[in-house]
Amino acid sequence: MTENTTAPVAGESPGDQPVIRRAIRYGIILTIAVLVIGGIIGFLVGGVLGLVSAFLGAGITAFFMGLTAVSFLIAGRLGKLPEGIAIYYGIILGTFFVKFIIFIALVIALRSAAWLNPTVFGLTTIAAVLGTLVVDVLALQRGRVTYVEAKLPGDGASPADKSSQDS
Q1: Are 124 and 53 in contact (CB under 8 A)?
Q2: How many of the other CB atoms lie within 10 Å of CB of 55?
Q3: What does residue 43 show for φ and ψ, rounded to 5 degrees?
Q4: Cα distances (angstroms) measured from residue 5 to each of 74, 116, 120
Q5: What does the pLDDT look like over 15-70, one tens digit per residue?
Q6: How far apart are the C-alpha atoms of 96 and 100, rounded to whole Å?
Q7: Residue 62 lies in a domain
Q8: Which contiguous run of DSSP H or E holds residue 82?
């Protein structure tokens, strides 16, 4: 079950594309599930405020997952490995810190909002964040990223040219 890949864009690692696409696809499925399940539970627990709070928690999580995917795409284009490893990880870690600051600012700004059920919002956001961790692990675990291109003895030789040790 390998995923069909298209030709890589200049500067982008062809091995990263299936993993990023899979993570985005799983993220969309997770966001829809959190919207539906969180929305239903939020509405049952807190009425319309609970529904809005669950939708906001899922929306924030979807936004952050999108930032993560974009950061990996940008890092893959700008940080040519192995020479640009510092640029690559600088972009990834920089995006992490930006997301952290945005999240803290949102929590502080929304904690006194009368139109928000903080319990439903918090639990929805926590469930979605844990879900994104699972999504990222599954996408990486199921992705096959080539990191070494090596010719082995006997590669490209016709079967008649191979010795018994090549098998």
Answers
A1: yes
A2: 18
A3: -65, -40
A4: 19, 43, 40
A5: 567 777 887 888 889 889 999 999 999 999 989 999 999 999 889 888 888 888 88
A6: 6
A7: yes
A8: none
